[in-house]
């Protein structure tokens, strides 16, 4: 498992060559908690019987969407695994829609369909989903951004999603839940794509053991492709079928991946580098362009956001149970306590300039 130090050093080496990206969102509102629980949107859904195109290569579909939104919406299509119905992955539908991402779940013509059949099912569902943007009676008429579509799948469905990405460069991101591809046929050529992919796996999965599936698929994905592997401690084959897996950290990571690589909201990237406490294995090659951050190379720390509203976050080589102080420009100590988490509450501060003293650093922050 890659240690945080390795990731941080890799990240810091890249930073001088990366320009920080700004988004219209307030990163103070993006927290581990906000990405773990349902979002603020009211969610509605409708079925194939309500007018969704009936594709030949899959069986049945449900579309979950957020109400009262403005602008065009991104979307994802998710397919289940071998011997399982659409219902087995539908918990992702309302969760993602509550965060502003349309989610289409589909079934298969046969629950025994193989990986290649699930690839075809996803390709057919892409046609159906895009058609919703042009169907006048659709709840998503003129509301979809048909250029921002991701794919997801569980087990053989996760294998199928990767095969689609290898054929279709327009797929913006992939979520693979304990993905299964026949070890005798999987190869770097088969997984040669540049769609950013997050691979979930379960530590004790006996159907798709990480060493035979997730780990190999991660390694065979090109090093130039943004990728992340999160193995859940004690997780079995269904550990990522709902956002509640890993005590909610599966949902946090899945949503953050889509927000970063489907929606292009860089505020969520730090949540991906915040290694889940439930991870028995974690590996990634991503870097984060963190908005409004301060770098402390001496102590390998990233401090953000700055300017700050209510909470300042420290990432890197944290020495917990070590004292930090907040001092105003007159040198008065306003707060002094032991650092117990990576977050420091500064909501009590008035607007102005302050300094955080931590380890051997003096870090200037601006309170909005």
- In helices, the fraction of residues equals 10-25%
CATH H-level superfamily title of the largest domain: Alpha/Beta hydrolase fold, catalytic domain
Taking the sheet with the most strands, its summary is:
9 strands, mixed
pLDDT < 50 runs, ≥5 residues: 1-25
Give the CATH architecture of the largest domain: 3-Layer(aba) Sandwich
Q: Determine and state the CATH class of the largest domain.
A: Alpha Beta
How far is it from the N-terminal to the C-terminal residue, by CA? 39 Å
Instruction: Please work out how many helical segments DSSP would assign.
Output: 8
Give me the secondary-structure category.
alpha/beta
CATH topology type of the largest domain: Rossmann fold
Number of strands: 17
Spatial extent as radius of gyration = 22 Å
Oligomer: single chain
Q: H/E series, N to C? A: HHEEEHEHEHEEHEHHEEEEEEEEE
Overall shape: globular
| Mean of residue pLDDT values | 89
Number of folding domains? Answer: 2
Order of strands, main sheet, comes to: 1-2-4-3-5-6-7-8-9
Q: Estimate the strand proportion.
A: 25-35%
């Amino acid at each position: 498992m890659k240690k945080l130090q390795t990731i941080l050093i890799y990240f810091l080496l890249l930073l001088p060559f990366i320009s920080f990206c700004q988004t219209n969102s307030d990163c103070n509102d993006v927290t581990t908690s906000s990405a773990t629980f349902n979002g603020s949107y009211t969610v509605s859904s409708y079925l194939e019987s309500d007018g969704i195109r009936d594709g030949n290569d899959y069986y049945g579909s449900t579309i979950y969407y957020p109400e009262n939104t403005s602008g065009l919406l991104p979307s994802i299509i998710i397919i289940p695994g071998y011997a399982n119905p659409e219902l087995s992955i539908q918990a992702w539908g309302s969760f993602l829609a509550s965060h502003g991402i349309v989610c289409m779940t589909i079934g298969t013509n046969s629950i025994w369909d193989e990986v290649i059949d699930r690839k075809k099912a996803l390709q057919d569902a892409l046609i159906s989903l895009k058609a919703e943007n042009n169907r006048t009676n659709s709840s998503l008429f003129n509301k979809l951004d048909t250029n921002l579509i991701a794919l997801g799948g569980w087990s053989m469905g996760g294998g199928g999603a990767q095969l689609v990405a290898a054929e279709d460069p327009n797929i913006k991101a992939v979520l693979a839940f304990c993905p299964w591809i026949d070890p005798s046929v999987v190869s770097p050529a088969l997984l040669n794509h540049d769609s950013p992919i997050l691979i979930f796996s379960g530590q004790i999965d006996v159907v798709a053991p990480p060493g035979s599936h997730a780990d190999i698929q991660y390694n065979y994905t090109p090093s130039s492709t943004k990728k992340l592997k999160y193995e859940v401690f004690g997780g079995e084959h269904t550990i990522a079928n709902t956002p509640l897996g890993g005590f909610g950290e599966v949902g946090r990571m899945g949503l953050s991946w889509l927000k970063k690589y489907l929606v292009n909201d860089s505020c969520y990237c730090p949540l991906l580098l915040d290694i889940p406490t439930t991870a028995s294995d974690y590996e990634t090659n991503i870097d984060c362009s963190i908005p409004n951050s301060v770098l402390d190379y001496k102590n390998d720390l990233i401090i953000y956001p700055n300017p700050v509203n209510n909470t300042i976050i420290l990432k890197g080589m944290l020495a917990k149970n070590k004292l930090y102080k907040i001092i105003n420009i007159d040198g008065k100590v306003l707060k002094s306590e032991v650092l117990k988490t990576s977050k420091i509450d500064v909501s009590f501060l008035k607007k102005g300039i302050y300094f955080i003293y931590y380890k051997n650093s003096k870090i200037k922050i601006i309170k909005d």
